[in-house]
Each structure stands twice: as structure tokens, then as C-alpha cells.
Here is the input.
Amino acid sequence: MSRESLMAVSARLFARGGFDATSMRDIAGEAGMLAGSMYYHFPSKNDLIAAVYERGVAEIGSAVDSALEGRQEPWERLEAACIAHLASLLADRAHAAVMTADLNRLDPRLRRRLVKMRDGYEQRFVDLVAALPLSPGVDRGLWRLQLLGALNWTPTWYRADRKPPAAIARALVASLRPTAAEAR
Here is the structure.
């Protein structure tokens, strides 16, 4: 089995059961290989988790970057980024879904490594929110975390028979956007 295939299987299992609950033996069984054979590709489970997480950051980051191309208006840029972020999370892309996993139970060194990757991705949203004409006194950091929290929680309750991801993202941005009177 190739490294890429092994990462795909791992991402799917991590997205479904979490990092902590998914063993190397689980992954090997799903991949149809001996657990020891996985160590040819990844020296440790932490290295495998980091590789899968990095792929998720790259996938979702690429989707957001593509959505921002050619857009100039700050609210339009934020909406496009939110749509791309949510569409990535709700698509059948386990690598992106891993980005919303709880990192608190991981080894502290691995957690710091993953948080650094996540922070690099989220810098896009720091910049997008900084460009918005928000009401004076709005804590932009909390505002951004509220937005990302709502987006990242969506896979928990989302069902395909509800509104499509783009409509959900647009509604969320619209609910947070101040009215003209509030923006003054």
C-alpha cells in the first residue's frame, strides 16, 4: 500500500473515531496490511497524525485560497472563504475533516505542532476579519473565533437534506454582518 493510500485510510478513521480512539492496528486492518508494515511509511502514530493533519490544512487552505482569487470586497471575500471552508468540511474529504478534531488529548509536542499548522491556516481568517468594516469596539479575535467555531461545528449537525453548504455559510456571514447603522 502506498503512503498516500495509507494516509487516506488513516484520515477516514481519524475523522470517524478521533485520533485517540484509532489505533495503528485499526488503520492497518482497514488498509489490509500488517501493523508493523505501516512503520515503513511513518515512524510513529504521531508522525502519521501530523502528516494527515498537514494534508487537511493544505486541502482546505487551497480551497479557500482559490475561492478568494479575484475578489476584492471584504464581505464578499469573507463569504467566499466561509463557503469554501464549509464545503471542504462537508465534502467527503476526511483530511479536511480531521482539522476540526479535538487536539487536547494528544501528546503536547504533537498538539503544538498541529496548532501551529492550524494557526497558519487560520491566518487567512485573521486577515479577512481585519479588513472588515466592523462596528467600533468589536473584538475581532473573538468575532473570528465565533465564526470559525460555528463553521467547524456544522458537520456535527449537518444533513444533506438541509440547506446546501454555500447557503449555510452565506446565512452565517449575513447574521454576523452589522447593519449600515451599526457599522457607524
